[in-house]
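tool_call: predict_structure(chain=1)
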Amino acid sequence: MPTNLPDEPNKKAAASGPESDFPAGLSKPALRALAGAGFLRLEQLTRVTEKELLQLHGMGPKGIEVLRPALADKGLSFAAAPGTSS
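tool_result:
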């Protein structure tokens, strides 16, 4: 299980959706995986690595490929993997 995920997912808020700023091209399983883990905004993804997100059921490489440019558009990126330079 990813270590940097929120302890208490807010499933009620995640289900409502309007406060999310995830890109439209993200699949429904990926959106459910993110919401289930408590992620509602792109900014929250800067605390986790791509590898950690890939551990979520429903999140795959295509989801990462959709999220990466959406983060970059906001001047953000996923957390650096331990042992790598950012």
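agent: Residues 8-17 have pLDDT under 50 and may be disordered. Proceeding to next step.
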